[in-house]
Automatic annotation (TrEMBL):
It is an enzyme of class 4 (lyase). Belongs to the transglycosylase MltG family. The keyword Transport does not apply. It comes from Photobacterium piscicola. It catalyses: a peptidoglycan chain = a peptidoglycan chain with N-acetyl-1,6-anhydromuramyl-[peptide] at the reducing end + a peptidoglycan chain with N-acetylglucosamine at the non-reducing end. The keyword Ligase does not apply. This is Endolytic murein transglycosylase.
Length: 338
């Protein structure tokens, strides 16, 4: 009798184990099925969403077909039910298991915004305001208020942010991006200042930032940055006006319509480097790392002048006579292009 009872118990246990194994196989097969999308699809999981709520959301978005076996996931794969809010990118042919793993690990989709070197803060601000994935907290703030919120000890915000591509998750605030860009700029500027040339005619890192912004606006040719910087350094040492058009344009503000007249060059502003000596009071754009390095470690040259050469670069000159000759050559090129 005991032997028969043991046999029955063994058979029952075997049946239970077989059923459990078959059930596990069914759950695993369901989790291994690919999602029903042929292109990358985004879903936003709200705070407080349950595992069952997520499955319903995926089903409503026609990404999965609900299976009765999914109710057992919590028992067999409990880690897959710890849902985290966020915006996620679901790729074609991704398995349901990989989707659930991504969501439970909080691997949100990383959006990107590129803040371009040489642009003004006003241009960056428009870009930030137009990004639909950022939380816009600065729309009604003045530049002085933004400066304070970022932690800048200056009401003038121009130049304080490092151009770069910044990645972020949906709902990140615009002020968060600016804080990261400011922190990156301060680190870059501090590192560059430590490597400055011994005879640099600049007294502070901020002056280097101002100079870097001018270099950034004066040339887009990487190999010229050091020479452009040398011209301005030579002028500073000689107490000559910098006479750089980008500062004049910046000082004109909204009055600038694409052209600079002789009257504009003679009209004093805080940024008109034709009517003043030394540096303007603030940067005029967001300088790149390369321009910052050129500002603190310029080339050694005896050049005091430069003008466009009509080929995308510049002609550098030591004397005014040579410079005037280069200007005439450039004007001749312009006439032939009309």
């Amino acid at each position: 009798m005991l032997k028969k009872l043991i046999t029955v118990i063994f058979i029952l246990l075997l049946l239970i184990a077989s059923a459990a194994g078959w059930g596990y196989f069914q759950v695993k097969s369901t989790l291994d099925k690919p999602v029903l999308t042929e292109q990358q699809t985004f879903i936003t999981v709200k705070t407080g969403t349950s595992f069952r709520g997520l499955l319903t959301q995926l089903s409503n978005d026609k990404l999965i077909t609900i299976s009765p076996w999914l109710r057992w996931v919590g028992y067999l794969e409990p880690a897959l039910t710890d849902i985290k809010a966020g915006t996620y990118a679901i790729k074609p042919q991704a398995s349901l298991y990989s989707v659930l793993t991504m969501i439970t690990e909080g691997k949100e989709y990383q959006y990107a915004i590129t803040l371009v070197d040489g642009e003004r803060f006003s241009e960056w601000r428009e870009l930030l305001q137009a990004d639909p994935h950022l939380a816009h907290t600065t729309d009604d703030m003045t530049q002085a208020q933004i400066s304070a919120a970022v932690g800048i000890d200056n009401d003038k915000i121009e130049g304080y942010f490092l151009p770069n591509t910044y990645h972020f998750t949906a709902g990140t605030s615009d002020i968060s991006i600016l804080k990261r860009a400011h922190s990156a700029m301060m680190k870059e500027l501090d590192l560059a200042w430590q490597q400055r040339a011994s005879d640099l005619p600049l007294k502070t890192p901020y002056q280097a930032l101002i100079m870097a912004s001018i270099i950034e606006k004066e040339t887009a040719v990487a190999s010229e940055r050091g020479l452009v910087a040398s011209v301005f350094m030579n002028r500073l040492r000689a107490n000559m006006p910098l006479q750089t058009d980008p500062t004049v344009i910046y000082g004109m503000g909204d009055k600038y319509n694409g052209n600079i007249t002789k009257k504009d060059l003679r009209t004093p502003t805080a940024y008109n480097t034709y009517t003043m000596r030394g540096l303007p009071p603030t940067p005029i754009a967001m300088p790149s790392k390369a321009s910052i390095m050129a500002a603190v470690d310029p080339d050694n040259s005896d050049f005091y002048y430069f003008v466009a050469d009509g080929k995308g670069g510049h002609k550098f000159s030591t004397t005014l006579v040579e410079h005037n000759r280069a200007v005439r050559a450039y004007l001749k090129i312009l006439r032939t292009q009309k």
